[in-house]
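In response to reviewer comment 3 from the previous cycle, which asked for concrete evidence that the modeling workflow produces usable outputs, we include below a single protein chain processed end to end. The sequence was submitted unchanged, and the resulting structure tokens are shown without manual editing.
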Amino acid sequence: MKFKVINNDSSESFRIIDNVLNESVLSLVKDTIESWNFPWYFLSNSSVPVQKMVNEGLNYSFHHTVLDADGKNSNFYDMSNMMALVMKDSFKLDHYKIVRLRWGMTMSVDKVYRNDPHVDSKHPHKVILFYLQDSDGETYFYNDSNEVIDSITPKENRAVLFDGSLLHSSSKPVNFARRIVLNVNLKINEN
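The workflow returned the following structure tokens.
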């Protein structure tokens, strides 16, 4: 397991685990998510719930929300939740529960483009990002002044854990056609 500390104002950190899923599970997940019949839904702004066009209209993405505050939303819940549980155990997050599972996909726009910095929730939480395949669509991390302080390159079968209060953003791949990520939000289990 790789541990890296980001030197910013709040001393946030993130951890990376490469090859988090075994090869059989990864193959099944890739076959499912990359198939022609996996449903993707358009978001005009990938980083805020308000559906409005910003940033030259390039901040769009596609999503498939599997679990949110309203409960299970997808026939792909069992597979996605199983993956999230493996990652939760790998990061030793025993006292956390999964509250949101969302697949996200950004497509190449043939130029370097960062989406808007954001946090997934205003409430205290942890985030795990799982990269389904190699891509050059970096995940960027920001300080409170929206200045980039670090980035992570998507690598197939890589999981990244960080505190949910850390501003972050996805970006569009240039050399790859797409970037697919499972976003897992967890909060402390109060039961």
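The two ends are 29 Å apart (CA to CA). We consider this sufficient to address the reviewer's concern, and the full set will be provided in the supplementary archive.
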